[in-house]
Every structure is written in C-alpha cells, then in structure tokens.
Amino acid sequence: MSVRNGREFLSIPGPTVMPDEVLGAMHHPAIDIYSGRLEGITHSLLADLPKVFGTAGRVYLYASNGHGAWEAAVTNVLSRGDRILVLESGRFAIGWGETARMLGVEIEVLPGGWRRAVDPAAVEERLRADTAGAIKAVLVVQVDTASGVVNDLAAIRRAMDAAGHGALLMADAIASLATMPFEMDAWGIDVAVSGSQKGLMTPPGLGFVAAGPRARAAHQVAGLRTFYWDWTFREGELHYQKYCGTPPEHHLFALRKAVDMLFDEGLDNVFHRHRLLAGAVRQAVESWAEGGVLEFNILEPAQRSDSVTTVLVKEGTDPGALIRYCQEKCGVVLGVGIGDLGGKAFRIAHMGHVNAPMILGTLGVIEVGLNALGIAHGRGGVQAATDWLGRSVPA
Ligand SMILES: *Cc1c(COP(=O)(O)O)cnc(C)c1O
C-alpha cells in the first residue's frame, strides 16, 4: 500500500529539481564547437556569472563538479608547503582542506563544531597570533550542506581585517549561490567556488571559480598550477581554451536557460522566495520539536540556512525509517545525515527550483511519516508552516 506513484519529489540538497525549461534546453543535438552560437553562449555566461557572484572579477567555468572547483581554486593561488586555515562548521570546509592537503598544502583547522557558525572572534584571535603571516589563505563555506549552518562571510572578512592579516579569503558558495545574497566584492572575498546542481538548477557537472584582484595576483606566483585548471590558459583568446578542450555543450545550454530564469525572476526575488520557504520549514520543525525527539541541528536560529535544514533525531529513533517511509510510501526523497550526523539526522532541502506546493507537500509527507511510524512530535507542523506563509505572502 502506498501513495507514491506520480512525480517523485527530490528534496535532497543537490542535485536539486531541474526546471523543465532547463531539461528542454539540453534536448538538442551537439553543435559545431567552432560555431558562433556556442561562442555566444560562453561569452554571455562569462558576462553573467560574475553578476551572480556579485563581483567585477572573472569567473572560470569548468567541466567538473564542486570538488573539481575546489581543486581549481587551490591550485591557482597556492604553492606546495603553503599553510592555510580551514574554518570548521560542519563537513565541507574540512573536505576542501583535505583537497588542498593532498596537493601539498599544510592545513590547520580552526575547530568550530557541527552545531554553530564559525565565530569571527576566534578567526581574529588566531590570525593575530600569526605575526609572521604564515597563513596564506582562509577557507570557509557560506552554507554547510551537512550541518545546515550559514556563516557570516562579511563578519569573517572584518575579523581578518581587524587582525591586520593579509591572507586570501576563499569561500565555498556551492550550496548557497542563487539561494541567498552572496556579495563577493562587497564582502572582501578573494576566491569563490560554486557548482551547477544546487541553487543554479542545472545538472551536476559544471564547477565555477570566481577570482578577485588579490587572487589573480597570487595566481602569478602560485606553484600548484596545472594545465587543466590554469586561469591564465583559460583567459586565452581561443574558445576551446575557456574549457581547456571540448566545451560541455549541453551543460552550457542548460546553465544559460537557468541563469535566464534566475534573472527573469530577479535575484532579490529568488532570495526572498528561499527565505520564505525556509521559514515555512523552520516553523514546521519548531512545532515537531516539541515532541522531544526531533530538534534543529543548528542551535542559534539566525545561523540556520535558507537552503537546507538539518534535523537531528534523538538516539533510539532511526531517521532511516522515516526517510524510507517518505520515499517508498509517499514519493519524497529526503536527505540523509552525512559525516558526523550519519544515522542521526535527516535533511530537508529548500533550494533551487522550489515553490510553496513542493515545500508544503514535503512537510506534509514528513508529518504523515512521523504519524505512521509513531515518532513523537509536536502537532501542527504543517499548520504552522501554512500560517507562516499566509502571513508572509500578502494577497
Ligand atoms: C555539494 C557541496 C560540495 C561538493 O560538490 P560536488 O559537486 O558534490 O563535488 C561542496 N561544498 C558544499 C557546501 C556543497 O554543498
């Protein structure tokens, strides 16, 4: 017995739901790699992506996932033996640091934890102690997709400035770009990375790195540069150099459509939609938490991201049973807990091509699952979410 047949809803934090228009843009034979049409798409994307990052700097486009973009960022600005500071707030900055470690960079982790944002005061204190300026870069995520935290990148830059430290600030915006404001230049971010399959609503397989002037200066002396990732090569005149080989044509068709859709909606409206839907999710989780079994992983409300919510499940209750119920019985695929939260949490994504019925449907299904499995929870989660949207979205 199930009510799952119909369109399955993917509520995992990447890959996210792809709009039909984006999928349709890919349903096209390959075109001549030397054609004016393809060059036009490249030029328009290289002009438009910096607007999404909030930078007057350049964006480089890679046929890669986010891990590739991580490596691209590190190899273009650092050298073997350089020391970097990795700011812990969950799984992903640590993962980026591991990438750098395998390339020969020395890693120092500033311990944070899984339940709170990076503390800018701790960053300032650590950098003040680095009087010799040994730390060349600071790595941080805007949204950690495992913990569900959002870090205040502008405050981290202010802390670096207060310490009078010259390290580059490198930010991972993979789970946040096009879901919430990201102001690379205004916030003093030197290098930013992202990927296609989260807020950008495009199939996995494109990575982006945005670079500001300080990063491009560091690039001139970076020792880890390799042919495939190298910015200088990709700045060359020939079109194939932009991708260091055959352009990932269908991903480019898709991304062009996705960026058009984001601009048509208006980035501010996109951010506002995410804020409202995230608010609805938080209303529901807050109600459910009254049952004493579920709770927000992120303790401080202001540090909960607008793109994904991580819900902790008390020991003795299996989040896997709920996740299975939602998928097998109701056709909603929730995110599992990852890293330290494996087997202890589930995640509700609310990023990308999502609207009220998708989010309210997901919350409704979770509530069905909580009831069916007899998991104690405060009643009225969906009611709280609909009340919130009714208040927040005026007639
Ligand atoms: C998804 C994600 C990544 C990894 O991206 P892949 O495309 O899976 O390599 C890195 N950082 C963050 C914050 C992410 O959400």
How would you characterize this protein structure?
This protein is α/β, with parallel strands linked by helices and 395 residues long. It folds into two domains: 9-16 and 266-392, Aspartate Aminotransferase, domain 1 (Alpha-Beta Complex), CATH 3.90.1150.10; 31-263, Type I PLP-dependent aspartate aminotransferase-like (Major domain) (Aspartate Aminotransferase, domain 2, 3-Layer(aba) Sandwich). The protein has helices at residues 20-26, 36-53, 66-77, 92-102, 120-129, 153-162, 213-221, 231-234, 249-265, 267-289, 319-330, 356-372, 381-392; strands at residues 9-11, 58-63, 83-87, 106-110, 135-141, 168-172, 191-195, 206-211, 294-296, 308-313, 332-336, 345-349. It is globular, with a radius of gyration of 21 Å. It binds pyridoxal-5'-phosphate (PLP). Pyridoxal-5'-phosphate binds next to helix 3.
**Radius of gyration (Å):** 21 Å
Q: Tell me about the biggest sheet?
A: 7 strands, mixed
- Low-pLDDT parts are none
**Can you tell me the overall shape?**
globular
Strand order of the largest sheet: 2-8-7-6-5-3-4
- Class derived from helix and strand content: alpha/beta
SSE blueprint:
Layout: E1 9-11, H1 20-26, H2 36-53, E2 58-63, H3 66-77, E3 83-87, H4 92-102, E4 106-110, H5 120-129, E5 135-141, H6 153-162, E6 168-172, E7 191-195, E8 206-211, H7 213-221, H8 231-234, H9 249-265, H10 267-289, E9 294-296, E10 308-313, H11 319-330, E11 332-336, E12 345-349, H12 356-372, H13 381-392
Parallel strand pairs: 1-11, 3-4, 3-5, 5-6, 6-7
Antiparallel strand pairs: 2-8, 7-8, 9-10, 10-12, 11-12
Helix pairs in contact: 1-9, 2-9, 5-6, 9-10, 10-12, 10-13, 11-12, 12-13
The structure holds pyridoxal-5'-phosphate.
Pyridoxal-5'-phosphate is lined by residues 14, 65-67, 92, 141, 145, 172, 174-175, 195, 204.
